[in-house]
TrEMBL record:
This is Cupin. InterPro entries: Cupin_1 (IPR006045), RmlC-like_jellyroll (IPR014710), RmlC_Cupin_sf (IPR011051). It comes from the Bacteria. It comes from Paenibacillus typhae. Coiled coil: none annotated. It holds the Pfam family Cupin_1. Residues 32-158 form the Cupin type-1 domain.
């Protein structure tokens, strides 16, 4: 990208305060600040997100249609998960202070904090970190389309997706209902060692708990390629100079192409 910045102009900016540029705030422990060319006009082809998370909070599944992302852990710890569209694998990369995980342009990914006070810096090779969020995809895709495509009950799809709010950014939402939280706690209990699952998850039948524990892998545990999601490449956007090379994929009953929702941009929430 060629820049024609007039560095003699009195409007030229050489510094900025990210604390004044909040992209999204869930609460005082979970929020995202943004810095792009809209906030600092001399940045040229760089931008970043300053991400603060408490334990188990998630930067929701999403992809950046115009940039690759380098996630650097400043403090705490997190797991960066992504789907490799060329191998059909869901990959997980735990990072701690000083470590990074790289997400190529257009790849579906998400980040989960594994301890409180986690601080991540996401750096992009574009002047504005544009994004298409999973919550936007789920809330904007008509329920009848999802029901017909995957042979689901339309009423149940509507009921299930009704709580999904566009531009969630950090989940679970602050107003997440208790049954959902309880379900997450039960899942975490089942993900423990099989011999501990009957104790930690008393609501399960004792003879089923070890099976559930073995089958419900934690979000931070790698899955073998044989358990791939059958992911298909998403639509190529105009932002791409070179589209992805199409590879042969197994035809599994999953998304064949997710509709793109206009990017969230960098407007403050």
């Amino acid at each position: 990208m060629t820049s024609y910045m007039d560095y003699t102009s009195p409007a030229t900016q050489f510094s900025a305060d990210l604390n004044c540029n909040t992209l999204f705030k869930k609460d005082d422990c979970n929020y995202i600040n943004v810095l792009g060319i809209k906030q600092l006009n001399t940045l040229e082809n760089t931008s970043l997100l300053d991400i603060f998370l408490s334990k188990s909070n998630v930067v929701e599944p999403h992809y950046h249609q115009n940039a690759a992302e380098l996630v650097y852990c400043i403090s705490g710890s997190a797991v960066v998960s992504l789907i490799n569209p060329f191998t059909n694998e869901l990959l997980h990369f735990p990072i701690t202070p000083g470590q990074v995980a790289n997400v190529p342009q257009g790849w579906w990914h998400y980040e989960v904090a594994t301890v409180d006070c986690t601080h991540l810096l996401a750096i992009f090779d574009a002047p504005t970190p544009e994004v298409i969020l999973g919550s936007d995809i789920l809330s904007k895709t008509p329920a009848n389309v999802l029901a017909h495509t995957y042979c689901l009950n339309e009423a149940m799809v509507k009921e299930t997706l009704a709580p999904v709010k566009p531009k969630t950014f950090i989940g679970p939402p602050a107003d997440c209902c208790e049954p959902v939280k309880a379900g997450a706690e039960n899942m975490q209990a089942a993900n423990m060692a099989p011999n501990m699952a009957p104790i930690m998850a008393p609501n399960m039948a004792p003879n089923l708990a070890p099976v559930m524990a073995a089958s419900n892998m934690p979000y931070y545990m790698p899955q073998p390629a044989s358990q791939g999601f059958g992911y298909q490449p998403m639509s190529v956007h105009a932002y791409y100079g070179q589209p992805y090379v199409q590879q042969p994929y197994r035809q599994l009953p999953y998304a064949q192409g997710i509709p793109a929702y206009p990017n969230a941009g960098t407007d403050n929430e």
